């Protein structure tokens, strides 16, 4: 049931991309997603696609994992592309029926949207496959730190995030156990009408909820016993190090952007 | 002798309840002593342990740790002296990885990064978990998680270590391992140890045993003193130690057994003597 979750499916191949600082990876992948929207011609899309492919290959992660990232979103992609094709207007009209029409612009837009989806999914998959969730949490904390000045509880948010991540596998294990325990008592999951299926989830959710409360209580006591009295002023065991490779990665991304703009205005 | 823990007339009841969980418990623990609190489930042992660490506020009574009275303004100071290992290995694991978890207490005390790395490495080495430093808790066994919890305690160099049923969720092997490890660490660091358990065999290393039943301290003394009264233990919902059970069975077979309490080793010795003399 949960094995399809891609988040946190870190694949350790120790490639160049793996060793980058998580802050760099997080910022650069978000940045890349933004500049994808700057692309407006086949040359620009080709350039970004080539770059993405290069990044994917350099992670040394088997391509199957990327396909796993795309697969659950195939229907959304198809739906959006078809919508674009049939409802856009402009340019040469190839086919029309009522409000539906296939036009030159529509087709082009459809292809662009398709490329955009693909690139965004691939790039974010690169981030999650090459970075441990824990590292992403650290990066988020580091990037939010300036907000502490605006009275945003950054330390608390970071602690919440890291505890949540730490308990994801534990709670998944537990829900699997509860499911099996309820099955052994005759609860039938995944059959019957929609309402019946939803109702059969209750014997999983309630015990899981209660046990989460017990865990929270235990954890809070254990944290207090170990001297936790608030996030402010704690020292940090895990430090992030910015290496030369990270600066190089930023420069490369800048180069990619410059070439993108070059192609955009050339066309 | 220097008193490490002093408990005076401890009384506790959960706020909405008339029922007293602790009833006038008084005892003290000396520096370097290993004291075991035993009692069946629900007898108030864990409540006592939490009260000592200031995690629960007593309804009445006083607790003194190393000469300092436990109060609202001293509680954090006192917690620095106490290392606490709880029952559930999963629920007390705060860190995302083993090393992070060991470092958690040090982070709370503003220890500098370099010092922290050295202390974490050392503590993991002491519990033989250095190979697991970057592992996540999901990949560890229960015994390994408890060893990590123990490492987290050692890294902070407390003077008192409280094990609150720390082995009750482990298999017999893991249990042995943790208790043996605790004994070695006690010798190295001269901890004062307070273990809380309902498993009599776990009191094997204790200097003194406190027997708690239904919130009352019903017996206190050396293992010989407390465990000789076998029937007393059984009446209070506890099991006899292994050696005692063996001797009782022999007694049923009309074999003369010595009346005083004996440890496993002593029983082995006695059996050898008995067999030799009957030849």
TrEMBL record, chain A:
Keyword Transmembrane: yes
Signal sequence extent: none
Entry's Gene Ontology molecular function annotations: transmembrane transporter activity
Keywords from the UniProt entry: Cell membrane, Membrane, Transmembrane, Transmembrane helix, Transport
Gene Ontology cellular-component terms listed: plasma membrane
Residues passing through the membrane, by range: 20-39, 75-97, 109-131, 152-172, 242-261
A Pfam family this chain is assigned to: CbiQ
Main location, first listed in the record: membrane
Subcellular location: Cell membrane
Membrane topology: Multi-pass membrane protein
Heme in keyword set: no
InterPro entries: ABC/ECF_trnsptr_transmembrane, EcfT
Top-level lineage group: Bacteria
Function, as annotated: Transmembrane (T) component of an energy-coupling factor (ECF) ABC-transporter complex. Unlike classic ABC transporters this ECF transporter provides the energy necessary to transport a number of different substrates.
Family from the record: Belongs to the energy-coupling factor EcfT family.
Subunit composition and interactions: Forms a stable energy-coupling factor (ECF) transporter complex composed of 2 membrane-embedded substrate-binding proteins (S component), 2 ATP-binding proteins (A component) and 2 transmembrane proteins (T component).
Name used for this protein in its record: Energy-coupling factor transporter transmembrane protein EcfT
Organism of provenance: Paucilactobacillus vaccinostercus DSM 20634
Lineage: Bacteria, Bacillati, Bacillota, Bacilli, Lactobacillales
TrEMBL record, chain B:
Annotated compartments: Cell membrane
Recorded coiled-coil stretches: none
Domain ABC transporter: 5-239
GO molecular function: ATP binding; ATP hydrolysis activity; ATPase-coupled transmembrane transporter activity
Protein origin, superkingdom: Bacteria
CDD domains per UniProt: ABC_cobalt_CbiO_domain1
Keywords: ATP-binding, Cell membrane, Membrane, Nucleotide-binding, Translocase, Transport
Assigned GO CC terms: ATP-binding cassette (ABC) transporter complex
InterPro entries found in the cross-reference section: AAA+_ATPase, ABC_transporter-like_ATP-bd, ABC_transporter-like_CS, ABC_transpr_CbiO/EcfA_su, ECF_ABC_transporter_ATP-bd, EcfA_1, P-loop_NTPase
SUPFAM superfamilies linked: P-loop containing nucleoside triphosphate hydrolases (SSF52540)
UniProt membrane topology term: Peripheral membrane protein
Pfam families, A to Z: ABC_tran (PF00005)
Similarity field: Belongs to the ABC transporter superfamily.
Name used for this protein in its record: Cobalt transport ATP-binding protein
